[in-house]
Amino acid sequence: MRKLIETQPNPEAEEQDDLASRTDARGARKRSEAAWADFVKTLITISERQLLRLELGEELLQVVQDARKVTSPNAKSRALRLVRKEMRELDLDELRQRLEDLSHPSARRAPSALDTWRERLLVGGESAIDAFVLEHPSADRQRLRSLLRNAKKTDAPAQKKSALALTQALREALSEG
Prior knowledge:
Strand content: under 5%
Oligomer: single chain
Number of strands: 0
Shape: elongated
Radius of gyration: 26 Å
Helix content: over 70%
Largest sheet: none
Number of helices: 9
């Protein structure tokens, strides 16, 4: 006896997939809009000097300066939406980084030995551990190996905790050696 192959898609299964993807898309869109809204509020509150140093572009700069002048809450909200609309073509992460560089210029320091070793260990694996232990004999090879293994896990909370523990272990080894 032959089994019939279903040629028409199951509308219930499709509908569930569509709902999940629409919900995910809506959530992502809301998070993105909230991030832009927070950044625009920051732009409105920074000093004129910092605003000019961000090099936003003439039109966008004018819109931001106009929004700063508005005092009525409803009009302010419309002005902030207009600024967000003007900024949609820009890269939010790049703008945040530029603002951070302007706000904290000392943070743009050269990477320390700790940062260099952490990156080298995360990328290099066993050979990097050997090189580190060769330079810093007081370092615990077994512990470093375990911390590296945990820092490379995909579980975000455990990964963050392990990365912090790795940084601490490297700091201790560098201070002893």
